[in-house]
Automatic annotation (TrEMBL):
Pfam families: Aldedh. The active site is at E210, C244. It comes from the Eukaryota. This is Aldehyde dehydrogenase. Residues 4-430 form the Aldehyde dehydrogenase domain. Keywords: NAD, Oxidoreductase. InterPro entries: Ald_DH/histidinol_DH, Ald_DH_C, Ald_DH_N, Aldehyde_DH_dom, Aldehyde_DH_NAD(P). CDD domains: ALDH_F3-13-14_CALDH-like. GO terms for molecular function: aldehyde dehydrogenase (NAD+) activity. GO terms for biological process: aldehyde metabolic process. The lineage of its organism: Eukaryota, Metazoa, Ecdysozoa, Nematoda, Chromadorea. The keyword Hydrolase does not apply.
């Protein structure tokens, strides 16, 4: 089916008003839940074939995570859909009724990434459906196995006028972006985000961009170093470092640097054993191109190795966990690494740390390990990022009452829970005057 025909068929269905009905939205969410539950194994197998990621990890992170958010939507979306009375101002009479009425925006395009190819499509998809929209999904061609499962599963459970999956690479995506959508959500790299935003501007289509950036982990002198190291290892090397909110680099002082490195070394051994390559818990780079990209940074870098757990193997697209000692001008500090290398930057004090973070592009998250409320407050008040976490990493994405999104170079807009519902909803200003019944 031609893209134009596909989009216009969805718009035609949307214009019938059917998707505005609460019972229809609930049916769509329940259908999505059924599709996930009944095809858990297919999705986990596909992600394993794309990433060599352990199936139990995908089941927990991507499937269970999606089901939990679906349940949250099912419990709350009807309440969120109700008109909201607003405060009267002096220009209004006692009989005037001002309120916000929630309207779905229309036909939504979700362009998914390859690194978490299930949950990062499911999360915006359920939000858009809960808000009463139709959705076109463009999964990443890089995670080809998962993309095919998406097409088969969605085609089985949904009519294309409600949810449709479009396959293809750069050429097909370029053609798809020529169509008129009412909202576009893209997850991926900043340079592609600019292309998406440029295409959207031709139709004055609003966009939500979920990008990335160099998310720092600040390890203060008073931190529990063993705990901090374990959290870093658990999150940096899941999915072989290919996580947009993974810690990109660590910042420590000379006082705790050696001890922190020792604890990281121990944590790597505990989680992945001495033979990381044989560990079922260690994934691979998505393809040779991304292997070469990370190796290219390694070749340009002047960083000194602190921890090396194996040799690179292009045939197996395997890059082991690496920890390197860097200066601020090193190749590893230029852009988001999106791979299994952890640079460690040394700063003399907290002011220098804040200056470094603030001097670069805004990250998607800043992580801080400290027992001091003053240190924590200085970080969240003097740096700019999508999120700040104290004594944990990445857990904010599982809190449905918090938004997920970046700022500046790390993205624009937000979703998850009600924030996702609001993203795909137009709040219409309504004023009723002299309405008696």
């Amino acid at each position: 089916m031609a893209f134009h025909e596909l989009v216009e068929n969805q718009r035609k269905y949307f214009n019938t008003g059917e998707t505005k009905k609460i019972e229809v939205r609930r049916q769509h969410l329940n259908t999505l839940r059924k599709a996930l539950e009944e095809n858990r194994d297919k999705f986990c197998e596909a992600v394993y074939n794309d990433h060599r990621r352990a199936k139990e990890l995908t089941s927990s992170i991507e499937i269970d995570g999606s089901l939990a958010e679906l349940d949250y939507f099912l419990a709350n979306f009807e309440k969120w859909s109700e008109p909201v009375p607003v405060e009267r101002t002096p220009v209004l009479s006692q009989d005037d009724v001002p309120m916000l009425v929630k309207d779905p925006v229309g036909v939504v395009l979700v362009i998914g990434p390859w690194n978490y190819p299930v949950v990062l499509v499911m999360a915006p998809l359920m939000a858009a459906l809960a808000a009463g929209n139709t959705v076109v999904i463009k999964p990443s061609e890089v995670s080809a196995n998962t993309s095919k499962v998406f097409e088969n599963v969605m085609g089985k459970y949904f009519d294309k006028k409600v949810v449709a999956v479009v396959q293809g690479g750069v050429g097909e995506t370029t053609e798809l972006l020529k169509e008129h959508f009412n909202h576009i959500l893209y997850t991926g790299a900043p340079f592609v985000g600019k292309i998406v935003m440029t295409a959207a501007a031709k139709h004055l289509t609003p966009v939500t961009l979920e990008l990335g950036g160099k998310c720092p982990v600040v390890v203060a002198d008073d931190a529990d170093l063993e705990f901090a190291a374990k959290k870093v290892v658990q999150t940096k090397w899941v999915n072989c470092g290919q996580t947009c909110i993974a810690p990109d680099y660590a910042i420590v002082s000379p006082k705790v640097k050696s001890k922190f490195i020792d604890e990281v070394r121990k944590a790597i051994h505990e989680i992945f054993t001495d033979n990381v390559k044989a560990s079922p818990m260690y994934s691979r780079m998505i393809n040779e191109r991304h292997f070469d990209r990370v190796k290219g940074i390694l070749d340009r870098s002047k960083a000194l190795p602190l921890i090396k757990t194996g040799e690179l193997d292009r045939n197996d697209i395997f890059i082991p966990p690496l920890v390197v000692d860097v200066r601020a001008d090193d190749a590893f500090m230029e852009d988001e690494i999106f791979g299994p290398v952890l640079p460690v930057l040394t700063t003399e004090n907290l002011d220098e740390t804040v200056k470094h973070i603030s001097g670069g592009e805004n990250p998607l998250a800043v992580y801080v390990f400290t027992n001091s409320k003053d240190v924590m407050k200085k970080i969240w008040s003097e740096t700019h990022s999508g999120a700040v976490l104290g004594n944990d990493i990445m857990s904010h994405v599982s809190v449905m009452t918090l938004p997920f999104g970046g700022v500046g170079h790390s993205g624009m807009g937000r979703y998850r829970g009600k924030f996702g519902f609001d993203t795909f909803t137009h709040e219409k200003a309504v004023l009723l005057r002299n309405v008696k019944n």
